[in-house]
Amino acid sequence: MKKLLPLLMIGFSIASVAQPGTALDEKVEKFLKEHRDEWHDLNVPFVDGQTLYDLIVKNKYTAALEIGTSTGHSTIWLAWAMSKTGGKVTTLELDEKRHNRAIKNLTEAGLIGFVDARLVDAHQLVKEVTGPFDFVFSDADKNWYKQYFLDVTPKLKPAGCYTTHNVIDGNAPKDYLDFVQNNAGFQTTIDKKSRAGIMISYKK
Asked: Cβ-count burial of 124 within 10 angstroms (0-12 exposed, 13-18 middle, 19+ buried)?
């Protein structure tokens, strides 16, 4: 089922919680601590969530696209980072049950106001979203990784960052990894802090 949900801005404004050390930080930290061992449904490991957060905050990115929400663990880290930069993350999920659970988790964590959560077929929507984006996290169907990259990177700003999950655990296709790592338009490294691995590609 394809259904486009509007931007969800519930409960507070970005400006009201974008300062470091606020009650929002305490709420997010509490939520992540209480649910740390519950992210089993196609979600990223805790350490990879921290890596995504750090990349956004360090580079002050404000316009993120996530391909593959699952139940929202990575989205929480992305949205938390956006609370620091004053930005927003657009996240795409095909499965309605996982999408609804992600909305619930983001709401409980206090971060739904930083998220445009869409229940859609990413194969189609990545061609239609206008961008521009300065950060992308790709973590949906692995056999479509290359097509996502081709569809989205023209909308990625120079010095923007395109990240890909599951690149050292054997899930990402080798031809995709070779394609990105040999792409002259990007400077690429691989973060190996988790067994999944994140490929980090900066657009030149």
From this structure: exposed
